[in-house]
Structures are given as C-alpha cells and as structure tokens.
Design goal:
The complex is a heterotrimer of chains A (226), B (304) and C (280).
Chain A: H1 2-33, E1 37-47, E2 51-53, E3 56-63, E4 67-71, E5 76-79, H2 85-90, E6 96-106, E7 109-118, E8 125-133, E9 138-146, E10 150-158, E11 167-175, H3 191-197, E12 203-215
Chain B: E1 5-16, E2 19-30, E3 34-38, H1 45-52, E4 60-65, E5 68-69, H2 70-78, E6 81-84, H3 96-105, H4 113-122, H5 138-150, E7 156-160, H6 168-185, E8 188-193, H7 196-202, E9 205-210, E10 213-219, H8 220-223, E11 228-235, H9 238-249, E12 254-256, E13 261-267, H10 271-280, E14 285-292, H11 293-303
Parallel strand pairs in B: 3-8, 3-9, 6-7, 7-8
Antiparallel strand pairs in B: 1-2, 1-4, 4-5, 9-10, 11-13, 11-14, 12-13
Helix pairs in contact in B: 3-4, 4-5, 5-6
Chain C: H1 2-15, H2 17-49, E1 56-59, H3 65-76, H4 80-88, H5 93-98, H6 100-105, H7 111-145, E2 150-154, E3 157-161, H8 167-194, H9 199-217, H10 248-275
Antiparallel strand pairs in C: 2-3
Classes of the chains: A alpha+beta (226), B alpha/beta (304), C mainly alpha (280).
C-alpha cells in the first residue's frame, strides 16, 4: 500500500522531469542547428594504450546533418564516435526518452545530467548520458555506450564559439580493452622485452583542440565526397 | 743449357687419408730443360706437380723452385711460373681475352692489351679473342691455357698432361707450341705425360714415376738407346727359334711372352738377319714387332 | 694484389647471368607488391588497424610510400638472403667446380687475399642488392604512393611515425639490414670454402637460416641460452629503428653479434682455404 502510494506520487514527477529534459535538449539541438557547416583547425593528441603517435594537426569540416571530413597531411587518430553521431541522435526527440538527473559542476560550469535512452532496439547507442550547461545550453560532457564500441566519454571546453555550441577542446576517453593485435608478419626480435613493458591500461584519451572556426561559410557537398 | 737447378724435389710424400699418392719422390730440373715427367695414370704425377705449385701441401719432403721455398717466397716463386694443371679451365661465361686479362691482372706482371693480343696470336687464337670460352673446343682451350701460362713471361712452365683429350691434330699443335717455347723462348719446361712418345719427342731429361715412387731419372738419350730395340717375334716353333737365336746371337735378353711369342733385345739392322735365319731353318715367322727399349722399359717398369 | 683480384671478382660477378637473376627477381617481386598495393592497398591498412577500427578512425594519407616500403621490406627480408646466397655461395666452390680455382691458386697472390677479395666482392654485390632494394622499395613506392606518416605494427601495438622522422630510420634500417645480408653473404662464402660444387653452399646457407630461424621461434627453454647468439635472431634488427622509442641498446647488441659472425666466417674461410689441398 505504501509502495503504491509512492509510485502514484513519483509518476507525475518523472513525467515532469522528462518534459524538462526534452526542453533542455531541444535548446541544445537548436543551438547546434544554427551551425549549417563549419571548418576548424584541430590539434590532436592521442594517449592510447598500444598506439604511439605524436601530436598531429588536421583540418576538420562539418556540414549538417552528418557530413564530416578530416584533412590531414599526416595520420590523425580520432574516435569513431563523438563528432556527429550524438548530435544526430538527440536532434530527433522521437528517437529517445530523456530524464533529467543531478546537477554537478563540469569544467567549472553547472551542468545537469540528462540520461537519454533510445526507444527502439535498432539504435547503435544503448545509453547516452549528457551533462548540459543549462545556462549556456551546451553539452559539457557526454558518456555514450554503444553496442559494439563500449563506452566513450567526452568532455567539452568552450571558447569564443560557445554561441554556436562549438567547443574549443574535446577530450575523448575511450575504452581500449577490446584492442587485440594481429600477429605481425615479421618476427619481432624484442618480443620478450616488450612483454614486460606491455601497457595494461584500459582507457585511452584523445584530446582535440579546435581553433580558427569558420562557421556557416556554405561548404559544398563536393568537399565531403571521398 | 746449364746445370743451374730450377726445381728441386727431395723425398716428397703425400697421403690422402690412407692412400699414399706420392712416396719419397725426388728429382731436379735444370734451367733450359724440357723435363719429362712420365708415369701411368694415377702414378702420382699430378699430386707431385700440385705440390710444385703449392696447390697441395706435402706431408714430407722439400720442394724448392729457383732455390727458394714456398714457405717464405710463395709469391716470388709463382710470379715466375706459368702452369696448366690437368686441363686448362677458364671462366666459360667470359671471352678468351677477358679470361687472359683476369689472369694477367694477378700474374704479378704488367701485361698490356697489346701483349694479350700478341699472346692470342702466338697460340693461334688471334681472331677468337672476343669469343666466349664456352664455345671453345678442348684444343682451343689447351692453346688458350698455354697463352695464359706465358702471359707474365715466366722462366718455368709446368704443363700437366697438356695433350690429354686432344685429337691427333690438337696433339701436334700443342706439341709444336711447346717446341716453339723451347726453341724460341728458351723456357724451362716440365711436361707431365703418360705417353712416352710425347716425352721422347720433346724432352731432354725425364723422370719416371709409378705408384707414387721414382723409378728412374736421367737424360732421355741416355735412358733411350736409339739403336737398341726390343723386338717381339711370333713364330710357330718357339723352342727351336729361341734356341737357334741363343746359339747364333749369344744373347741373354730373351723373354718368353706366350706359346708363340718372345721378346729379344737387338739393333735394328739385325732384324732381317734374324728373320732370314728363322726362315732358313724352317721356322715360320708370323709377326715381327719392334719396340724402342725405353718404351719397353717404361711398360715393364709400370707393370712390375 | 687484393684490389686487383677484387676487381677481377667483380668482373666475374658482373658477367654471370645468375647475378642478374637476383636483381631481376627482386625487381619483379617488388613490382608485384607495388601493383598489389595499388590495386588493393586498403586491405593491408585494415590488417594493420582492424582491432582499433571499431573505436578509432585513422585519417590522413595512410597508404603511402613509406608504408609500402616497410611492407616490402618485411616481406622480402626473408627472400633476399636466398638471392644473396645464390651469387656469394658460388664464389669459391663455383671456381672449384669449374676448375679455375687451380689457375687462381697458382698465381702470385696469397690464398688469404683470394678469399678476402671474394668477401669484398660479395659484400659489394650485397650492398648493390640492398641499394637496389632500397631504391625500388622506398624510392619507387614514394614516387607512386607519395610520402606520409608511417603506421608500423609492432608486437606491443601500433607506432605512428611522422613523415619527417622516417627517412633517417630507413637509412639506418637499411644499413643494419645490409649487415644482416652481409652475414648471409659471409656464411655462404665460408661454406663455399669447404665445398667443391656450386649448389651445396647455397642450399646449406638457406638450410642454416631456416634451422636457426625455427630454433629462434620455438618457445622452448632449452634454446633460450642459444637464441641471442644466433645471427638469424638479429636479422630483423633493422625493424627496431621503426619503434618508438628506438631501442639503441638492442640494435647495438645485434650489430655486435652480426659483426662477430662476419669476423668468424671470414677467419674460418681464410683458415680453411689456406689449409685446403686443391685437388679439383
């Protein structure tokens, strides 16, 4: 009887929370949608177990809704998720149900946790947690769990393009426990030495610092043709 | 010719495993000699000659060339020696001229291209210089081999079985070349062969070896008395013939070969007289085969 | 006299058809690999990055000349020793088989110099082959595929080396690879000093390389004390230049062991050839 009472009380409260979450997400999406396209310079630093790479430079291009391109002279490693898929996922509110959670401080900004659960089973994303700065309506942190790639946590820092919701820095924390190396075609002479030095960390980070944004310059579709 | 000793071999012995190829061989070669080194196949000639050229290290004995030993003067000695061992082998994929250039470069003497051409002319290969050796006949290779031995103008030339495998014309060609070396260039030549006729035709001194041992050494003309022959008679009544011959000639050198054959030593002019004697006494002579004494000696010694 | 005979040896090598067989085979093999990469290079990239692809994307000019050169080197370093041995294994025994060794040994040149000149000529041929490998693998690949950062798959993960940081690694890598091939050359010449036919030392060289490689690969403790001293263990030392950081201590050790092998092979050949009775 007591439990039933609590449930009756909670039901309208949770519905209220869901509506507030959708409103907040809509504001974030609206900000994102104000950017039709952009290009920016990216400085990428990767610290990933089993991968050694020096900081690299790239130029990134984006065009709504999900066109994305990286141009680099050298090799640039980026997470597979994080740039476009979250945006496209939350841009259609029919796809998910959102619930507001606790308020915490992320990167010195008061943010509210918004948990987003997809409606169907077809979505690659199983669960998305977004910490949203509700004063600036920008995402400060995301934690996306997908079917095949584990969990990627991204922390955002904003600079002069905060009005477009474009970050100046993104730090991706990726799950690396699935990494397995194929047997090399050549015998590795220092095999025994390497065993002792093997990196056993389970997480890696990729830091992307973005600068020199050009927003809404009217990038042509041809630019994104591979 | 003088008595300056160019090659001296003393007590030379060499074993290959348990096989004694050469046992206590000794001889000397003087300047200007055409020295015959005679022996049947497998007698130890090649082993001895290889020891003379430091190709094989002897187990015992002393070898000196030009009064020097290989231990201390190998380079100096070999710079003054030209040789063909068994058969002249060349780089088949190179031309005759290139082959000579290769050997000239390490011969210890400066040999010009002109001299190489002259040498090819000398051995009768003047127009074949640019041809690859793989197309050469054995005789041509042999002549090229001789050209190779002469490139650096050595004092001593060692030719091991230089006529082996040659056709009759090739044998004559090589023999003539050796004679020209002797007559025109006054070289000291060591000539190994298993054919007495060859040695007899060219050499002034010789040594005969068999089963690795020295059998005889000396001047060819002394060893070979040109007048004395060993004559083989084939008759129908052997006992009567030998008895008749013994009483008539008082010779002690009669060897019975078979029921109808015997050998006897005599001078050439005596052969018709003996034949007439047999016929007059009713003995039928079916064959007379004269052989030089040295040849007989050579055959006998190697058979023994 | 050493120089003159080395020149002779080089003339002989240049005149032998089999010397060009190695160069031709190398050219053909590299040509085939470059063609395959041009047609289906992406599958190789997938092989390198497959385990990371679900999480990460590799952007930029990944399939470049530097990567192709590395792949070529990895593939061919197993076969080039055969091409080296094909020529060097014949240097002494080939002369014995042909009979020309008699002619050489009766010339006023010491047997030590004969052997050394063959080693020098063998080393020069190997150097030429290594250069040719370098020109084709690196030069032609860079010409066709352009340059770029290099992804190397090591046993402990991927290393991505920057374009500007690669050429010196290739230079040093080729130098050490040359030392490895030189060891093969020395081994085959050494075996050649004991043989009197052409094919024996070539086959024996390859047999030794295969045997030592198997011993080196077997994870059996009984061989652990031997493995570090087998030259085959150090034949992939060139690869260490493509690690980050470069393990100079390991490379130094490999160089010392390879050099020691060369010295032993040369000394053994000189000793054997000087004592050898030439009966061919």
């Amino acid at each position: 009887m007591r439990i039933l009472f609590i449930l009756i009380l909670l039901f309208p409260l949770s519905k209220l929370h869901a509506q507030a979450a959708n409103v907040l997400l809509n504001k974030v999406v609206a900000k994102m949608m104000s950017v039709k396209d952009y290009s920016a310079n990216a400085d990428v630093t990767a610290d990933i177990p089993m991968i050694k790479i020096l900081p690299s430079k790239a130029k990134i291009y984006f065009k709504q809704k999900d066109k994305f391109k990286v141009e680099a002279k050298g090799i640039v490693i980026l997470p597979k998720q994080g740039f476009t898929d979250v945006n496209s996922f939350i841009s259609n509110s029919k796809n998910y149900q959102a619930i507001l959670g606790d308020t915490t401080v992320v990167n010195s900004a008061k943010s509210v946790l918004t948990t987003v659960i997809p409606n169907g089973e077809s979505s690659e994303i199983i669960l998305a947690k977004l910490w949203i700065d509700y004063t600036r309506n920008v995402v400060m942190k995301t934690q996306i769990t997908t079917k095949s790639n584990g969990t990627v946590t991204t922390t955002y820092t904003y600079g002069d393009k905060v009005s477009y919701g474009l970050p100046s820095k993104m730090v991706f924390e990726i799950d690396v426990k699935k990494f397995k190396l194929p047997k090399s075609v050549a015998a590795d002479i220092n095999n025994t030495d390497n065993k002792s030095k093997k990196d056993t960390r389970k997480k890696g980070t990729i830091t992307v610092s973005l600068s020199n944004y050009s927003v809404n310059q009217g990038l042509s579709d041809a630019l994104f043709v591979k | 010719m003088n008595n300056e000793v160019i090659v001296s071999v003393e007590g030379l012995s060499k074993k290959f495993g348990t096989f004694e190829a050469v046992k206590d061989v000794s001889f000397t070669v003087n300047r200007g000699d055409v020295f015959g080194f005679l022996g049947p196949n497998g007698a130890g000639k090649s082993t001895t000659i290889r020891c003379l050229l430091s190709l094989i290290a002897p187990d015992q004995g002393k070898v000196s060339l030009f009064g020097k030993s290989f231990q201390t003067n190998r380079r100096e000695i070999l710079a003054n020696v030209g040789s063909i061992i068994e058969k002249p082998d060349f780089y088949r994929y190179l031309s005759a001229e290139k082959n000579l250039e290769i050997f000239a470069r390490i011969s210890g003497a400066e040999v010009s291209k002109k001299e190489i051409q002259e040498m090819l002319d000398f051995v009768g290969l003047g127009d074949r210089g640019k041809h690859k050796v793989k197309g050469f006949s054995h005789g041509m290779k042999q002549r090229l081999g001789i050209a190779q031995t002469l490139l650096h103008k050595p004092d001593l030339i060692i030719l091991d079985e230089p006529t082996t495998g040659l056709d009759p014309q090739g044998i004559v060609e090589v023999r003539n070349l050796i004679l020209r070396l002797k007559n025109e260039q006054n070289k000291t030549i060591i000539l190994s062969s298993h054919q007495l006729a060859e040695i007899e035709l060219i050499s002034n001194r010789m040594v005969i070896i068999n089963q690795g041992r020295t059998l005889v050494e000396g001047r060819v003309d002394e060893l070979l008395n040109a007048q004395e022959l060993v004559v083989r008679f084939e008759v129908d009544r052997l006992a009567e013939a030998t008895s008749l011959l013994s009483s008539a000639h008082a010779t002690s050198e009669i060897s019975i070969i078979s029921e109808k054959e015997f050998d006897v030593t005599m001078e050439q002019h005596q052969i018709p007289i003996v034949n007439k004697l047999f016929v007059e006494n009713g003995i039928n002579v079916t064959a007379i085969e004269p052989k030089r004494k040295l040849e007989d000696y050579f055959l006998k010694t190697i058979q023994s | 006299m050493l120089l003159k005979n080395t020149y002779n040896e080089f003339v002989k090598i240049l005149s032998k058809p089999r010397s060009y067989l190695g160069v031709g085979a190398l050219t053909l093999l590299i040509g085939i690999i470059i063609f395959a990469m041009k047609v289906d290079g992406k599958s190789i990239i997938s092989f390198l990055t497959s385990s990371f692809e679900q999480t990460l994307t590799f952007n930029g000019h990944v399939l470049n000349g530097n990567l192709i050169a590395f792949i070529i080197l990895q593939m061919l370093i197993v076969h080039v020793p055969l091409l080296v041995a094909l020529v060097t294994g014949d240097l002494i025994s080939g002369e014995a088989a042909m009979g020309t060794i008699r002619m050489l040994a009766t010339k006023p040149i010491s047997r030590t110099q004969i052997v050394l000149s063959k080693f020098i000529a063998g080393a020069l041929y190997t150097l030429f082959l290594t250069f040719w490998l370098g020109i084709l693998a690196l030069g032609v690949s860079r010409m066709i595929f352009g340059t770029g950062d290099l992804i190397v798959l090591n046993s402990d993960g991927l290393v991505i080396l920057q374009d500007a940081d690669i050429l010196w690694r290739y230079g040093a890598g080729f130098a050490v690879a040359y030392l490895s091939l030189l060891t093969v050359s020395s081994l085959s010449i050494c075996l050649s000093a004991f043989a009197e036919n052409s094919i024996g030392p070539i086959v024996a060289t390859m047999a030794i390389i295969i045997l030592f490689t198997i011993i080196g690969t077997l994870d059996v403790t009984v061989f652990d004390s031997v493995k570090p001293f087998l030259f085959t263990t150090h034949m992939a030392a060139w690869r260490s230049f493509f690690e980050d950081p470069v393990s100079f201590d390991n490379i130094r050790e490999s160089i010392v062991i390879l050099l020691a092998h060369n010295v032993v092979f040369v000394a053994l050949s000189v000793f054997a050839f000087n004592r050898k009775d030439i009966t061919s």
